[in-house]
Each structure stands twice: as structure tokens, then as C-alpha cells.
Amino acid sequence: MDQKSSSKIVIERKGAVATVIINRPHVRNAIDNESADLLAAAFRTIEADEVVKVAVLWGAGGTFCAGADLKVVASGERFERYDINSDSPMGPCWLSISKPVIAAVAGHAVAGGLEIALWCDLRVAEEDSVFGVFSRRWGMPLMDGGTVRLPRLIGQGRAADMILTGRPVGAREAFEFGLANRMVSTGSARLEAEALAADIAKFPQMSLKNDLASLGDQWSLSAERALRSEFTAGIACVEREGQSGAGRFVQGHGRGGSFSDL
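The structure assignment produced for this chain is given below.
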């Protein structure tokens, strides 16, 4: 296993899966200016890495991320980084990358930590994990996509409830209304997320990336334009990847819905 680390952000690679670790457990992985910059840089590194197909995001020490480091905010230092033409306050949340990202959520994913989890494509949550807009208590607004991504994911009414009240949402409730995609036993989120990432990495990647991109792009397009965009990208993929995949099926692979012989 390869490891590239700083004091605050670590990247660990295993085959086609890279795990990005927020490594500030002494402050429940709250994000300061440096860690925000390092986190954005980590995902740019992963995007450029031709070996890595899927990324996992995990917080060390039993907490996913408690949001912005409020000690830094209170000092005024945090404001030096707020710039619409830069990276988002939490780091990666304005980035658009082509590879799937899975959040492995243990403990709390709250405030800006919730927003980072929402930026990810999938969320694997431990059974005692907690989501919430805890920053509601301190006059800290959502600025990393929370008011945009949360209602698109779980609906306007549920999002309004979470955003306006700031209440904690446990893993079971999060799973039931689609905020969490998987609910797993305590202590296993990273392992389960990495196993899921490895499974996704086995698929033909051109079609997977095209579908992931279309899934995101369609929000800003009319239905007609979204359909045309999906088709245009898809037909090129069929020629380069799908035809050979269909040939493998004809040869007997994947029969009966099997995923074991891809």
C-alpha cells in the first residue's frame, strides 16, 4: 500500500482505489485553511492519477468531519480563504472530477462535514453515525453546496427540516430517506467503502464516467438537452467500449446477472 501524507491529509492507494484521509482527529477532523487546500489538492491528484479509478473519503479517529474549524473562524483567519474564484471553503466541494467518490462516514458528518459528504457520489454510513447542520447554532451558513445538493438528494421538505432546525439525523433515518446509500456496522465504514470502490473499479470505465457525468450535468439542462447530451456521449462509448463488452456477453460472461466474471 502506497502512502503520501501531510500532517493533516493522507492519501493511501491500493490498486485502483485511493483513500483520502482527513487526519485531524484532535479537533474531530474540523477543516482549517491548510487542510481545505490540501483536501482539494488531494482530489486533483487523484483525478490526474491514471491508475486510480475510484476514491474513498474517510476521517481518522472515528469522526468523518465536524465542519469548519470554528477556532480559526473566530480568529478571523478563516476569512482569508473565502473566495468564489478559488476552491470552496471546505476544499473540494466546487471541484468536478470524473471519478466516483465514496464517503465512508463514521461518527459525525455535520455542518461543512455534511457538505463534503454530499459532494461525494455515495455515502457509506456506520450505524451510529450522525448527519446534521450543526452550524445552525452559531450563525454559520452553508456555503459548500449544502442548500443545493441536500434538497436534490432527499427532497425539499426533508432538506428544509435539516437545514432550518439543525437537528441530528441518525444513520437509520439517513438511510431511509436516501442520504446514506449503505448502513454498516460501527467501525467498518472505511473497509466497506473500499470494498465497494474496488467493485466499481472493475467495471469498464468510459461508460461509467459518462453516466456519472450525465447524472450530474442533467440538473442544469432541459430534459431535451439532457437526453441529447446523454445519447451523444453514449454512442461514442458504445463504439469504443460497449461493442467489445457485448462480445464478452455473447461468449458466455455475465449470464444470469452474474458480476463475478467481468
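Interim note for the steering committee: DSSP finds nine helices and ten strands in the chain. The beta strands are 2-5, 9-14, 17-22, 54-59, 101-105, 108-110, 122-126, 130-132, 169-170, 182-184.
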